[in-house]
């Protein structure tokens, strides 16, 4: 009588060990692919977030209006107030972002959690005669547009006393007039998944043909400055 052939215990152990190794390799590859896909999605989200923020800022700043946002101690209307930490101006607010019409708008870099955040506030210009009555801007809650900022600063180009463009300055010296250009330079921290492209925009005054000419000349100035920096 022939003995029945079968697998030894050692052979079974070797087979199961090999199967376990193969399954581990398969699941490791699936997990690696999943994590790579997640990283790609998060980076795309970060790029889109920065793109949206820059588009909003470009739209609002390029259409800033020569309307007073506040008064100086001498009673002079100040149309664009800005320094390296904040800026305040008037611009039309699109209907889909809020009540249409000219809004006082403020951008500021605020310290938060060991870094900075970019905050945005806006409110419809009021015609209240009572100085003690709160305006829509005074009551507005700031919106955080961007987080994970390590450091940043605003800068401006304006006209000097001779009517010539200045270099980039960290504070508006003549807030009764509109600046020519606005810059926002941000350095993101390690939690950010995408760097901030240098943001520069020419301010277009509303209305007249002179505004259009100024817009064109300002854009040419911006291009010339960028080319000079690249050389």
From TrEMBL:
It comes from the Bacteria. The chain crosses the membrane at residues 7-30. Residues 217-231 have a biased composition (Polar residues). Pfam families: N_methyl. This is Prepilin-type N-terminal cleavage/methylation domain-containing protein. Keywords: Membrane, Transmembrane, Transmembrane helix. InterPro entries: N_methyl_site. Residues 207-231 are annotated as: Disordered. The lineage of its organism: Bacteria, Pseudomonadati, Pseudomonadota, Gammaproteobacteria, Lysobacterales.
């Amino acid at each position: 009588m022939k003995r029945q052939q079968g697998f030894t215990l050692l052979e079974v152990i070797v087979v199961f060990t090999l199967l376990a190794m193969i399954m581990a390799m398969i699941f490791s590859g699936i997990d690696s692919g999943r994590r790579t896909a997640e990283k790609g999605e998060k980076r795309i989200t970060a790029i889109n977030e920065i793109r949206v923020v820059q588009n909003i800022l470009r739209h609002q700043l390029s259409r800033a209006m020569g309307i007073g946002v506040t008064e100086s101690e001498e009673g002079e209307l100040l149309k664009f107030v800005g320094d390296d930490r904040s800026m305040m101006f008037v611009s039309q607010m699109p209907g889909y972002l809020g009540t249409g019409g000219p809004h006082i708008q403020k951008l500021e870099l605020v310290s938060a959690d060991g870094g900075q955040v970019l905050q945005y506030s806006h409110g419809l210009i009021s015609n209240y005669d009572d100085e003690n009555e709160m305006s829509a801007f005074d009551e507005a809650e700031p919106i955080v547009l961007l987080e994970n900022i390590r450091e940043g600063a605003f800068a401006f180009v304006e006209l000097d006393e001779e009517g010539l463009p200045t270099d980039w300055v960290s504070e508006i010296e003549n807030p009764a007039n509109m600046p020519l250009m606005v810059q926002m330079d941000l350095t993101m921290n390690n939690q950010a998944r995408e760097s901030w492209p240098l943001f520069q925009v020419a301010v277009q005054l509303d209305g007249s043909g002179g505004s259009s000419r100024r817009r064109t000349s300002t854009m040419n100035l911006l291009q010339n400055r960028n080319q000079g920096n690249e050389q």
